[in-house]
Write a structure and sequence with these properties.
- The protein has about 280 residues and is of the alpha+beta class.
- It is built from 11 helices and 9 strands.
- The longest helix has 25 residues.
- The radius of gyration is 28 Å and the shape is elongated.
- The N terminus is likely disordered.
Length: about 280
């Protein structure tokens, strides 16, 4: 099926635009009335022709998680004043982010078509994700930072209860190293500690100073205790003096309470270590 005729000014503008422009008829049948040639530049050669021939091609190309967005646009169950962010599959199988502004067309109170302008946002989205990652990473150690930990707490509050283990860790020697050898040596100690943690967990956080935490989502208590022993062995291997606390709950969304229990256990271990050092 070929596109229907359009006013020459619309076709001329759309045919020379880098953004994607389209008109999609919903009634009486699904079909594209117009698609700008730039769609081929973003998705792949032949996409325009395929979409005219089979309007369902766009339904097959949209990311499964974004299908609801597509359906809401053609049904009218959405806010057309807001842009739509969605991912479409290219001919080589990768997905690209697009931002779309859509306008519905009504006849006799029924939506009969939608028209839109779509802009490739892949580079901007990648930059945004990079910045979000930077905002959640500690610049010195590369571990997740306090902001990321707070975000995890908020995320888990609205989630289903799961088995949860928390390990809190505190360097015993950081102040002494800083005072005696300077902050460069102290930073190296923090980085070495972070390297040990990252070898055994992808959910390790530096909360600030010499405080670290590992969150074990979905772990059994036995798995958590095994991780704890692995860490203690690793610290011993690298001559790191670290107080560790551990707490576990079989089903919870309350990271804060489990963290507080682990933190208290860590503090008790730290006090015992200080007492032993004092005896020596």
């Amino acid at each position: 099926m070929r596109p229907l005729s359009l006013p020459s000014t619309i076709a001329a503008f759309g045919n020379h635009s880098k953004d994607i422009m389209y008109i999609f008829e919903v009634r009486p049948v699904y079909r594209f009335r117009y698609i700008s040639p730039s769609l081929d530049e973003h998705i792949g050669v032949g996409t325009v022709e395929a979409s005219y021939a089979d309007p369902s091609d766009c339904f097959d190309r949209i990311h499964p998680d974004d299908l609801e967005i597509l359906m809401s646009k053609i049904s009218g169950n959405c806010n057309y004043d807001e842009p739509f962010l969605q991912r479409w599959r290219t001919n080589d199988g990768t997905y690209i982010w697009f931002e779309e502004y859509t306008t519905p067309i009504y006849e006799n109170g029924e939506i009969v078509a939608v028209q839109g302008v779509i802009r490739n946002m892949n580079a901007a989205k990648a930059k945004q994700q990079e910045l979000e990652q930077l905002c959640q990473r500690d610049t010195l150690t590369g571990l997740y930072n306090r902001h990321a930990f707070d975000c995890l707490i908020e995320e888990m509050i609205s989630s289903e209860a799961i088995p949860l283990g928390v390990l809190t860790l505190d360097l015993n020697d950081l102040k002494r190293v800083n005072d005696r050898f300077g902050h460069i040596a102290g930073d190296a100690l923090l980085q070495q500690t972070a390297l040990c943690l990252s070898r055994f967990s992808q959910e390790a956080f530096r909360l600030g100073g010499d405080e670290f935490v590992i969150v074990c989502q979905g772990y059994t208590e036995q798995q958590c205790r095994h991780l704890l022993e692995q860490l203690r062995s690793e610290f011993l291997k690298h001559d790191l003096s670290i107080a560790v606390g551990f707490a576990y709950d079989e089903a919870t969304t309350d990271v804060v309470t489990v963290f507080q229990k682990a933190d208290q256990a860590m503090y008790s271990e730290k006090q015992r270590t200080k007492s032993l050092v004092g005896l020596n």
